[in-house]
Amino acid sequence: MYKIVRKETLNPSVTLMEIEAPMIAKKAQPGQFIILRVHENGERIPLTVADYDREKGTVTIIFQIVGKTTQRLNELEEGECLQDFVGPLGVASHLAGYQKVAVIGGGLGTAIAYPQAKELHRLGAQVHSIAGFRNKDLIILEKELTACSDRCVIATDDGSNGTKGFVTNVLEGLIQEGNQYDLVIAIGPLVMMKAVCDVTKKYDIKTIVSMNPIMIDGTGMCGGCRLTVGGETKFACVDGPDFDGHQVDFDEAIRRSRMFQEEEKFAREADCRLMKKGE
Amino acid sequence: MPNMSLKKVSMPEQEPQVRNKNFEEVALGYTPEMAMEEATRCLHCKNAPCVNGCPVNVQIPDFIAKIAEGDFDAAYDVIAQTNSLPAVCGRVCPQENQCEGKCVRGIKGEPVGIGRLERFAADYRMKQGKETVQKSEPNGIKVAVVGGGPAGLTCAGDLAKLGYEVTVFEAFHTPGGVLMYGIPEFRLPKEIVQKEINALKKLGVTIQTNMVVGKVVSVDELLEDGFRAVFIGSGAGLPSFMKMEGENLNGVYSANEFLTRINLMKAYRFPETDTPVKIGNKVAIVGGGNVAMDAARSAKRLGAEEVSIVYRRSEEEMPARLEEVHHAKEEGIQFKMLTNPVRILGDENGWVTGMECVKMELGEPDASGRRRPVPVKGSEEVLPMDTVVIAIGQTPNPLIKATTPGLETQTWGGIVVKDEAGQTSKKGVYAGGDVVTGAATVILAMGAGKNAAAAMDAYIRGNQ
Known about the structure:
The complex is a heterodimer. Chain A is α/β, with parallel strands linked by helices. Chain A folds into two domains: 2-89, Elongation Factor Tu (Ef-tu), domain 3; 100-257, Nucleotide-binding domain of ferredoxin-NADP reductase (FNR) module (Rossmann fold), CATH 3.40.50. Helix content of chain A is 32%, strand content 31%. In chain A, strands 12-11-10-9-13-14-17 form a seven-stranded mixed sheet, with helices on both faces. A five-stranded antiparallel sheet of chain A has the order 5-6-2-1-7. The two termini of chain A are 29 Å apart. The relative contact order of chain A is 0.13. By secondary structure, chain B is of the alpha/beta class. Chain B is 34% helix and 16% strand. Chain B is built from 18 helices and 16 strands. In chain B, strand 11 (352-365) and strand 12 form a beta hairpin. The longest helix of chain B is centred in the last third of the chain and has 21 residues, at 442-462. Chain A binds chain B through residues 23-24, 27, 37, 41-44, 68-69, 83-89, 216-217, 219-224, 226-228, 233, 238, 252, 255-256, 258-260, 263-264, 266-267, 270, and chain B through 171-173, 209-212, 215-217, 237-239, 241, 243, 247-248, 250-251, 253-254, 256-257, 260-261, 265-266, 269-276, 278, 349-350, 397-399.
């Protein structure tokens, strides 16, 4: 079993868990993901590895409470165990050889952008981090991100903290200030990654995005995570999750992400009713 | 004097119009009386052609003799000597091409119902709940099996019987491979699969789930870690697509995804279970194999009004077992033969609305010996559809190939083996089942696992 050794609430809807999984911790690299199941009848959901500690044998995940599974996951406490935890899956990010990189996280995506920023920093690249949130209450990992960045800009949609506006505005501002990036990494909601790619296309800056589509096995078996990249079908689980953002068909990815929207809503609401009844 | 009836004792089944709405097993199995009656049809041929037709060498006339005597326990013991998964084989083996295909009684009339009798003996033992396991004296030698499907489980069982300390590394959260994720509950109840696996555990086999070999641990690391030999039975898990327009629309599944959602993740019990599947009213299954039949029959059970098998050749060339085709037809599945999909059409939100197909006609035989289907010009038409399941085959997952230096593979991804025993290009590493042959049957995979177990034993002994 996979014990939760630490649980931390990062904001009202985002939770961090450090999971005991020594074999995965030994192999995990930035950009890779794990798949977990909360309980016996649970679904398999992919979550990007947010951090790992090879000595302690732990893997950290950060998740947003959006549906039934993440709700149930969030109900587990330190000392309790997850039913299943498998990984590290996917191809690790290729981060070596860059001089100056803008790392952009949108909302929860910041949790995935952070290990990338950290690794780039370790490799000696100049790192500019941009993290965007809807408002100040949702800000996560500001301290951690600042520590590994040469410059860190927090933006909020409503201006309640940091710069008011979207990450794309901040990025464009930095580019216009004269910052020359040889790579932009964008991780967050599909619409945000798409918007970042629209900006970087204009300036012809290589852009890597991390895709997180619906998956079952995470090993190339179901093909549920397929997406079109450069006109070809790719499986996010084995060919990614990192892809050249300028090649990704985001509109298709957005449509595919909604495939089980009705069922997700139904499960979430049924679960809520059940929980209320139990009180 | 043997029972000279030309027909097998028929096996009770759920009525088609009842069973196409539930996931309970279709075939209900023999009663002891039926089994004993069927058993008396066996002529006990001296040369036992049936045994030659069995990839795992079950001593068929011997076990049938025990059933005829009413000693069902003894019958099971005969089967279990060479077959690690009798209750599974009795249900899903293509007996018509194997044991029963060679049965002398089949020359005039129907062959002996060997599969039904095997199933009976296995179910009888399971119902009795009798412990049958005799653990061998452990020899303290560690061996690894990659993949907990039919090939791996058989290999593991045979090695455990020889005293080896066997660990099976399974990528999914449950062992069983295609028996769990692929073959539906109504053909092979999952409880039965798990009971067979529990019997292996009692033999001393350790099963580690959530172990994706090639990711969390490599084949080389297993060898370095003290496993003296490794068997790779990772199957054919990579779904093939048609590479046609519209395949990424919402409502298009690979058969792997569709069946995994339903079987392994139990989507047919959603929302009691958390994994959903969307069925729609009009469902097309593209392909003509057993997987296509399984997908079609599952879709029907989940409430689709109209389910069609769309296959580019004619019914005669369909690779599915006759029994599966027969069952599918009984359950109301439509068969659109000589029809090939050209593209899938969708609405503005990206959902499937239809599938454009072209009519085919059969030309000269192709490399497979089957007549090659060629499109009939101008015969394109759009069939309205909500859901399309692509069931045109699977190839081996490239994960192990990519992470095992020195392991020779075919261009299509299959592992190259030197002989029937499954020796690969890498010392101490054996392979068998779909990862070697490409998608085939459960029993062939089991046969390969069995041969490899014997070869691994010989290899380890030779190196001591």
